[in-house]
Amino acid sequence: MSLAGKRALITGSSRGIGRGIALKLAEEGVRVAVHYYQNEAAAQDTLARIRACGADGCVIQADVLNGEEFGRLFERVQTELGGLDIFVSNARPELPAFFAGPMDISPDQWDAAFNSQAKAFLFGARAAAQLMPDGGRVIAVTYATGSRTGGLQPWVAMGSAKAAMESAVRYVAVALAKRGITVNAVSPSWTEDSVLNTLPTEAQQLIRSWHERGWTPMGRLATPADVGNVVGLLCSAAAGFVTGQVIMVDGGASLMNAEVPPEIQLG
Question: Torsion over CA of 34, 39, 41 and 43, rounded to 10 degrees?
């Protein structure tokens, strides 16, 4: 089912998962507002790739942690695209802004996580809904594993913020259901060309090898294109009765038992 002519805003779409989502929607004929905070060159590159797909769009800069700038982001979308059909809340700050353990994290780091996730999703969805016709799509990019576990200590703020965002997804889904606007979350596992690539090389290789040897039954990490494909499905008319859900995009990793080595589980 074609999405041709639809209009989308994807926060944090200059690279990584956001770019993967933007390119998938562009392949379906969606006009995309590429949002970025600091890396304009990356955003322009994403727009060039969108145009190479035969679609079009624009580039918009805004700091999602700044309430006034965030509000103006939607005003720009209205001016540039004439409205909105799809809103994807994906942006997050760089690791130093929030990455600290529970005994060390600062109030500013805690706020950066929550403001970029739960707050930006809730108020972004509200602003987007005002620009949308009935039948629109709102999608949050989460990391459900991080919101349920506590082992990766420096993820405490982001994991807690993702859990709050996932809860907000359910409330907003009910609020917008009568308009036929669906609201869902997509939860990728460790993904190439994302936060993974900001880690030290040794840590990246440990994570990749662990998943390749079986922790992910499909034997690899996710890619931005994998995530984009699922977002594309949720944006289709065929998914019009799916709302308030967290969809795992993890090659089966969430099915594994953390207490048993993968070699035993996979036989």
Answer: -10
